[in-house]
Design a protein that fits this description.
Length: about 220
């Protein structure tokens, strides 16, 4: 019975360790290097500098609040260009030219018109680029709005640099599995404790029901 208590405690501690480990693993990949407002008016120019904490793929993204009709916002961002007929009423006018420099050396460049990838959640994002970084290296992003969009400019646009979504999804899967495993271990710990408690009570009842022992006085 004491073994059951010890096993329950060990299993409970293991459940806690698995849960905390999963959250810490996800926190390693849930890192946003940059999140700054940007104007989508023609001629606007911005430079953003950050130091990478990890040697891993990153995403450069234009992030906007969901304040327009869903189809219109997708089309204005240029996410729906794969289906031109869907965006006939909302042609894309926004063009942002961007360049990324590593330690003052340009490593990649392009425009928002070249990309069609998007992300959807509480906000709608246009993924402009994916690029690799080296830990402790300095990166500068140069942005020029060559052709603006006054309507999209009302969606509180921001430029974000975060870890690649594929990296984040992998970490999220690991963290989710850790959470489910910790729940299972916690349930197992409770069951072991209940079994131990039941055995102790059963032993106590049997001890009470047993006839008293009288040593023999016969010689």
């Amino acid at each position: 019975m004491r073994v059951a208590n010890k096993l329950a405690i060990v299993t409970g501690v293991l459940a806690l360790c698995v849960f905390v480990g999963g959250q810490l693993w996800y926190a390693r990949y849930d890192w946003i290097a940059v999140s700054k407002p940007i104007s989508l008016k023609t001629g606007y120019e911005q430079r953003i500098t950050f130091v990478s904490q990890k040697s891993v793929a990153h995403e450069l993204e234009l992030d906007t609040e969901r304040s327009l009709e869903f189809r219109e916002q997708n089309c204005r961002l240029g996410i729906g260009r794969a289906q031109p007929e869907v965006c006939q009423d909302f042609p894309q006018s926004l063009i942002i030219r961007w360049s990324i420099f590593e330690n003052a050396v340009q490593i990649v460049s392009g425009t928002s018109a070249d990309a069609v990838g998007g992300s959807w959640g509480p906000t709608i994002g246009k993924i402009l680029a994916r690029f690799e970084t080296a830990a402790e290296s300095e990166y500068t992003i140069h942005l020029i709005v060559e052709s603006g969009d006054e309507i999209l400019n009302t969606t509180t646009p921001r430029i974000r640099v975060s870890l690649d979504s594929f990296e984040q999804k992998g970490a999220y899967v690991v963290a989710s599995l850790a959470v489910y495993l910790s729940y299972a271990l916690a349930v197992l710990a409770v069951l072991v404790w209940l079994v131990g408690l039941g055995l102790r009570r059963w032993a106590a009842r049997n001890a009470d029901a047993a006839p008293p022992y009288h040593p023999s006085t016969d010689r």
